[in-house]
């Protein structure tokens, strides 16, 4: 099954039985002093204009376990499945995801579903911007409450889809694995941009910025070429990270499209790693 769908193809499917279209947008912006990433709900933007019949799933309320010690930490699989069920996603659903922020949050929602074992999910190529550019219909005004799924999805977690700090630490220097930073080159080198507690990158990690990957619309061959340039070899286990696991999800999603199979997102990313001075980081070209 394709991992993406074009705006025209989605428009032809709207209203079909079992189809759930989710807007996973969250607005993020760096603080003025570049020491923290701030986030806001995109609910008001969703109510201003959206794909007809779509449902807003706000990760700030539903997919962030605030009892854990880092930003956007995933809740347990059962809680994640219950959150999706409350928004209409259950056994037999077909899900299409989009966002209005360049694809990172749609990919984060995709990777969360993949982690709990839900596979019938696609991303909208080009996101909401492409939908509007195609002149397709939009809906405005307060959205009705989502209809809960009649049969909630029973999670079947893929243990390897999410990595923790211990696995990342073990992967450093292991030729069978590669740790890849999805943040910008400046952030990777520690020369600019937002700093997550300490400048730079996880020691030994490669860099493939999620900003190069488009909004689910870069070809699989183009993604594979970028991965090769970044030093990501086929057959390696790839652990993607960023500041809080969001851009990393976009990287993991695109590598999946490009044929990479052994993929994980480091959930804590630099928001966890950078807090602990015992965990190795480095700056400079690399």
Automatic annotation (TrEMBL):
Which residue range or ranges hold the Rhodanese domain?
43-140, 200-282
Q: Which UniProt keywords apply?
A: Repeat, Transferase
Quote any Pfam family the record assigns: Rhodanese
InterPro entries named among the record's database cross-references: Rhodanese-like_dom (IPR001763), Rhodanese-like_dom_sf (IPR036873), TST/MPST-like (IPR045078)
Q: Which CDD domains match?
A: TST_Repeat_1
- PANTHER family from the UniProt entry: SULFURTRANSFERASE (PTHR11364:SF27), THIOSULFATE SULFERTANSFERASE (PTHR11364)
Name under which the protein is recorded: Sulfurtransferase
Q: Which organism is it from?
A: Roseomonas nitratireducens
């Amino acid at each position: 099954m394709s991992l993406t769908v074009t705006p025209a193809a989605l428009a032809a499917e709207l209203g079909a039985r079992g189809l759930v279209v989710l807007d996973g947008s969250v607005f993020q912006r760096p603080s003025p002093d570049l020491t923290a990433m701030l986030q806001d709900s995109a609910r008001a933007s969703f109510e201003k204009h959206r794909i007809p019949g779509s449902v807003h799933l706000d990760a700030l309320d539903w997919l962030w376990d605030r009892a854990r010690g880092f930003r956007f930490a995933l809740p347990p699989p059962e809680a994640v499945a219950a959150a999706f069920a409350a928004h209409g996603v259950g056994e037999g659903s077909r899900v299409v995801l989009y966002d209005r922020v360049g694809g990172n949050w749609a990919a984060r929602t995709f990777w969360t579903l993949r982690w709990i074992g839900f596979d019938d999910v696609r991303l909208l190529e080009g996101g909401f911007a492409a939908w509007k550019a195609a002149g397709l219909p939009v809906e405005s005004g307060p959205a009705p409450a989502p209809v809960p799924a009649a049969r909630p999805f029973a999670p079947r977690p893929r243990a390897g889809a999410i990595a923790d700090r211990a696995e990342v630490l073990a992967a450093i220097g292991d030729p069978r694995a590669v740790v890849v930073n999805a943040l910008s080159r400046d952030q990777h080198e520690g020369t600019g941009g937002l700093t997550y507690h300490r400048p730079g990158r996880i020691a030994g990690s490669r860099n493939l910025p999620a900003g190069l990957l488009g909004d689910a619309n870069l070809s699989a061959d183009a993604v594979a070429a970028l991965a090769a340039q970044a030093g990501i070899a086929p057959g390696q286990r790839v652990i993607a990270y960023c500041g809080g696991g969001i851009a990393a999800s976009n990287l993991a999603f695109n590598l999946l499209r490009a044929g990479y199979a052994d993929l994980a997102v480091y959930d804590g990313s630099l928001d966890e790693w950078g807090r602990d001075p015992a965990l190795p980081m480095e700056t400079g070209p690399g």
